[in-house]
Amino acid sequence: MRTSIFALVAVVALLVALAPVASAAPASSAEGAPNDTPSSPTGWYIFHSDDGFHLRTHGPGSEHDFDGVLHTEGTFENVSVVRLEDGDRADVTNGGHDLVIHFHTFDGIDGVNFTIRDANRVRLDLKLDDQPAPTSMIYLGQLGVHPNNNPFHLHF
């Protein structure tokens, strides 16, 4: 019996240690627009300005699928899309608490702009080609800072 309990505790501890953790980044790390050019690397570009948050996907060369779920305890507002093609989507769901994104990005940029009301953070869970996006392909703000983990939170 004692061995069984020890084994159970060890398994639970291992699962907790291996579970992905959502790290936090201050919104200041996302301040200012990136210098996104046609030669910029494939990835997610997230930035903040006086008029809200901006999310762009960039896929030079071959086509890529970008999928993401942004969640806040507040509500997403003033959502407007940028350069979307057929099949691309940015939908506010879950009573305004989720922004669900699917962009099929070719040799260019797709995006969405938004504001968040009554919250001090947003959780971002981003995928690239049906896999969790590597943090090295997530660029925050003008400096292109990478979050520590994906998913991650921006605090503001």
SSE topology:
Elements: H1 2-18, E1 23-26, E2 43-49, E3 52-58, E4 64-71, E5 75-82, E6 89-93, E7 98-105, E8 109-117, E9 121-128, E10 131-132, E11 138-140, E12 152-155
Parallel strand pairs: 1-12, 2-11
Antiparallel strand pairs: 2-3, 3-8, 4-7, 4-9, 5-8, 6-7, 9-10, 9-12
Description:
The chain has 156 residues and is mainly beta. It has a single domain, classed as Immunoglobulin-like (Sandwich), CATH 2.60.40. Helix content is 11%, strand content 47%. Strands 1, 4, 6, 7, 9, 10 and 12 form a seven-stranded mixed beta sheet that branches. Strands 5-8-3-2-11 form a five-stranded mixed beta sheet, with no helix packed on it. The longest helix has 17 residues, at 2-18. It is globular, with a radius of gyration of 18 Å.
Quick synopsis:
It contains one helix and twelve strands; from the N terminus they run αββββββββββββ. It is mainly β and 156 residues long. The strands form two sheets. Strands 1, 4, 6, 7, 9, 10 and 12 form a seven-stranded mixed β-sheet that branches. A five-stranded mixed β-sheet has the order 5-8-3-2-11, with no helix packed on it.
Count of domains: 1
CATH topology: Immunoglobulin-like
| Largest sheet descriptor | 7 strands, mixed
Helix content: 10-25%
**Percentage beta strand:** over 45%
Radius of gyration: 18 Å
> What is the end-to-end distance?
49 Å
The H/E string reads HEEEEEEEEEEEE
Structural class: mainly beta
CATH architecture: Sandwich
Number of strands: 12
